[in-house]
Amino acid sequence: MSLFVVDVEADGPCPGLFSMVCFGAVKVSPELQTTFYGQTRPITDDYKPDALKISGFSREEHLEFPDPAETMEAFAKWVEAESKGRPIFMSDNPAFDWQFINYYFHKYLGHNPFGYSARRIGDLYCGLQKDFFAGWKHLRKTTHDHHPVNDAKGNAEALLALVDMGLKLPS
After folding, report:
1. Which keywords does this Swiss-Prot/TrEMBL entry list (predicted)?
2. 87/146 Cα distance (integer angstroms)
3. For a FRET experiment, which of 40, 50, 96, 148 has its CA 20 to 30 Å from that of 104?
4. What's the number of domains the chain is made of?
5. What is the pLDDT of residues 125-148, one digit of tens each?
């Protein structure tokens, strides 16, 4: 199995009604050097200006991004090339990140290389701490700045800190 931490920036709260702006992925390894960055132009006319603003891009810039089919094809090829065995999707918030990636993979490729599930880093930390409300984001080293590769890297750093606390990851 290979673990990938993914982060998504979008122009609204859900796919289909709104669009993914960009996303980043980091393959989990001690170095955290293997990354992917993708941008996708809008798939709907609707967007929430406050949501888009978080990504740091204007609507005009977003409209010039690559075709989502091309970006998702490149991402799928990258995941396949970087995977040993089944790829596992992990994120800060799969309820948000997963839904966009899953939707775009199915819409443009007809399948999701990650399958049908994802893991939330915070839930792993809560389990290790035996505390449903334990906060974990202090374990990040890379500043959370809404560039999705940086955010994914920070989240992967937190995951690796969990390993130092005793979490066993698949080899």
Report:
1. Exonuclease, Hydrolase, Nuclease
2. 24
3. 50
4. 1
5. 999 999 999 999 999 999 999 999
